[in-house]
Design brief:
The structure holds 2 protein chains of 2 kinds. By secondary structure, chain A is of the alpha/beta class. Chain A has 14 helices and 8 strands. The two termini of chain A are 30 Å apart. Chain B is of the alpha+beta class. The chains are: A alpha/beta, B alpha+beta.
Chain lengths: 302, 223
Amino acid sequence: MSHRLAYYPGCTLKTNAINYEISAIASSKALGIELVELPRWNCCGTVHALARDDVMHYIAPVRNLIRVEQMRGSGLVDEGRLVTLCEMCYNTLRRADMGVKEDQERRRKLRDIMEEEPPYRGEVEVVHLLQLVKELGWGKVRERVERPLRGLRVAPYYGCLLLRPRGLAIDDYNNPTIMERLVESLGAEVVEIPFKAKCCGSYQTVHMSQVAAMLSHRILRQAMEGGADMITLACPLCEYNLGERQERIRGLFPDLKYLPVLYFTQLMALAFGLEGSAGLEFNNPDPRPLLRSKGLLGESRK
Amino acid sequence: MSGGEMVTVYIMGKRYRVPANLTIMKAMEYAGYQLRRGAGCRGGFCGACSTIYRMRGSFRLQVALACQKMVEDGMIITQLPFIPSEKKRYNLEKLKPGASVFLEYYPEIARCLSCNTCTKACPQDLMVMDYVQAALRGDIKTAAELSFDCISCGLCAVRCPAEIVPYHIGQLARRLYSRYIVGPSEQVQRRAMEVEMGRFDEEIQRLKSLDTDTLRELYSRRG
């Protein structure tokens, strides 16, 4: 009997990061967690408002939290936690939740503006899937592994949004290790990179792509010099900057080698024997040649 | 109407006493207005008679279709006979169904704050914000279904703080849905072929020859 949890996808998981979603749903299921998508949801809010009096930007995230409470009320899920995958969504929803819980005045104002909704009772806890996996225990993850990722050297990269501000960090905000433990549990080898929590360039990629390329390059370079075969991460925007943009970065730094970038859920799907739900065909650079050469795909199965 | 209850309404700021059993549209005509724009089907389907009003003593700005809403005592009314908006031209055959189509033609949808003002402004009680959000993430089916009963009255568009024109989004979603997701309908194709093969020619010719009164009679007795 699987445990049902509310799942907030966010727009990117439905468009550019489909591979993240399908691999997350499949590998969670393998671990006994059923991710139940919110029947109604809207934008997470994208970027948390830093101005203290900016109530307007709380509306979108708080409305989603209300949807979770409604969902729980109609018995669709087994508890009040909301699972996120996209780091941006995690950060925005979590900060909004913290922001209304710590400030009654803000909460009252929101209730006034959102009078068409039932008031947010503050009974939701926003979590990231990585936290749930850790909570289940690395032993349970190891038990579920059907095809250990032997011989694969993986560099975990966190980016900023799961760790900062520190009040919402899913792990030690200076030296997170949650993905390292996961990679080990899946049978792969960890390559530590010093810049694992440094900025990838984020949305500067839109209007200052050169800046994002420089920042992403440092991360890719460290992984390459550490001997990594690939990077694993949890954020679609980081994936875009490090993966999708890699060809462009190679234009600036021609000696940078081909380095696939996979969501941690794709590694789980592979190791759990769920290759068909790993969504590898959506990744750029294509990780399949590497995985094939390591004997980790299809017919080459050991 | 004689002897009926009368109410006081304010049409564009001017006070009138009108019978309480009238719609806003009929009350305006009772008060002497001749509606050249802002009146269409008079049946709640065409979306031409968008109206905004406030009740005396309340801060709320309310919306209605003038042909559907009955007058109430203390209503301060104005009609919005036309809503300016730019309808983009596109070739449906050349579009790729997905979130990027909406962002390409109507990039302002990315400014949506999910404030839900559009939903509150919809006289059809549609979940307007939800369909704009569905479009934003490429969920064309949901966007099409949630906007299906839209009559393009435009009230959502004038209330949106992000200046989005939701009804254009809904229309694009429904077009993409029918062209790329559900595909052609067998019944419609069959009927179109019957029309082309002349199955109804005789009946149409007969109807064309009838006078207005007979047509009226036939219409009221239709099955």
